Description:
This is Aminotransferase class V-fold PLP-dependent enzyme. Pfam families: Aminotran_5 (PF00266). One of its GO terms (molecular function) is transaminase activity. By secondary structure, the protein is of the alpha/beta class. 38% of the residues lie in helices and 15% in strands. The protein contains 11 helices and 12 strands. It has helices at 4-11, 29-44, 49-66, 79-89, 104-113, 126-129, 152-162, 250-266, 268-288, 311-316, 338-349, and strands spanning 17-18, 73-76, 95-99, 117-121, 134-140, 165-169, 186-190, 202-205, 301-304, 319-320, 322-324, 327-331. Strands 2-8-7-6-5-3-4 form a 7-stranded mixed β-sheet, with helices on both faces. β11 and β12 (327-331) form a beta hairpin. α4 runs parallel beside α5 and α9 runs parallel beside α11 (338-349). 47% of the residues are buried.
Amino acid sequence: xxxxxxxxxxxxxxxxxxxxxxxxxxxxxxxxxxxxxxxxxxxxxxxxxxxxxxxxxxxxxxxxxxxxxxxxxxxxxxxxxxxxxxxxxxxxxxxxxxxxxxxxxxxxxxxxxxxxxxxxxxxxxxxxxxxxxxxxxxxxxxxxxxxxxxxxxxxxxxxxxxxxxxxxxxxxxxxxxxxxxxxxxxxxxxxxxxxxxxxxxxxxxxxxxxxxxxxxxxxxxxxxxxxxxxxxxxxxxxxxxxxxxxxxxxxxxxxxxxxxxxxxxxxxxxxxxxxxxxxxxxxxxxxxxxxxxxxxxxxxxxxxxxxxxxxxxxxxxxxxxxxxxxxxxxxxxxxxxxxxxxxxxxxxxx
Length: 350
């Protein structure tokens, strides 16, 4: 019988201590094989229909992980593109509430509109800052810089009370924190971090009524019958969120399909328990070394002030972490082990 450990070890064999999933996740072996097969299909001139089928299989797998009907999921490539789509749907003068120092892709398109009122508050004050007239609240579920987790239940209630819509980026939490996308208006993610897919794939979850979005980026793939929508204006947009699809990076979705299959086999609850146990082990070890991380209980991302400068020497020693604004950021995922944590702590104690 396959176990969590046996499934993971069959898929990953990192050559170093890789604690940098918050930047880029490792690819499972099955994903690497799917990418190679997709490339062979192109090289050999075979029909690419199976790659388009991979897009739909990946969409369906993500919908299951997100807890929403597949009809609410659009397939694209980046958070910035979909933030731009949401920003374009807002009327001039609309107020958008964002968190201080959130990831640029989540917030910048609202600023570049030029005619929106973008209000920035500390993450901890986000829910209490929703007020009458707030049109949209945009935030990352887990902060890229330091792993702090937004109080999403409080934000959801505040938004409902004041009639605001919610736009939640789960790029830094999608595999270890339940997405619960049905609880929010819009949920967005890229898939090359915690979902362990190739670069170039992402998803947007929209409400059943599309939340007022206009399909301003619609091309042929956004048609109800894509292959009949290749020339001239699209005469019938998809009846589902597929009307917000962007032309898919077929290789990326071919690989992503397999990565999401692995996550479903393992289960988000098991992944979360594994990831958070390692993060807590690191926090405990840091205390023993006299270091205090940025408070982020329940997060798989740990950020340590003042240690970012050690990233180059750690990398040279075969330990991959990130330097974020002077903080050392370590992120723990399913392919990591207690030995990885201990090796990082040992290196930091030197």
